[in-house]
Amino acid sequence: MHVTSEQRLDDGVLEREFTLGEVPGILWTPASASVSAPAPLILLGHPPLGLRRMYPRLVARARQCAADGFAAATIELPGSGERPRRPAAEQARADLRRVMETGEPVSDEIVDALILPLVDKAAPEWQAVLDALLSRPEIGGPVGYSGGVISLGVRLAVVEPRISAAVLFAGSFVPRAVVEEARQVTIPLHVLLQWDDEGNDRQAALDLFDAFGSPEKSLHAHMGGHTGVPRFAGDAAARFFTRHLK
Known about the structure:
- By secondary structure, this protein is α/β, with parallel strands linked by helices.
- The protein has a nine-stranded mixed sheet, sandwiched between helices.
- α6 links the parallel β8 and β9.
- α2 packs across α3 and α4 crosses α5.
- It starts with a strand and ends with a helix.
């Protein structure tokens, strides 16, 4: 892992941009993290809109993590930001926009083309980054995952045993194959759902929650659209991680 820039934010959080191979990312560590007291780690998921565009939301979430004693990290997803475009994904997005504009139902073929290649490529990248992060002396386990794309969170919860708990954001399309994978998830889950999310199939989100095999899972549904998540929802998610990662 090659650190490309480093700055100390005004609340004492150390922010480091890095690259691991072709994958850019950002690591935030609280001032309290040290070799003698390594911080647990939370991986911050986000939609494939590019790190620069998502940065204000990500740094706010990272600062909340640091205030609770956690390190946080995120990476640029395949095909996003300055990473090479993925023509098949671009076509799938165009197909999705077309059917949503015309009011047609979104087919399984479009959802699969949009989501499954992203998950297949991003999950191993996250695991490689996790290897590098956990080799740093100021960062330790356990590890949590927080955010979307929810299908990526499902895959990581299945294949990555170092992830001990996850906060998942409903609100993206979910392939049927991922719903089947969800039955293998056994870690504690805290799922956020905006009840009136204009881009989300509410019933699909409920079906995915029902499919999760976790003995401990909770669904937190709030009225409002995709960007209307109430502030107290973040407080509840923070308490979830404090309970399971400390």
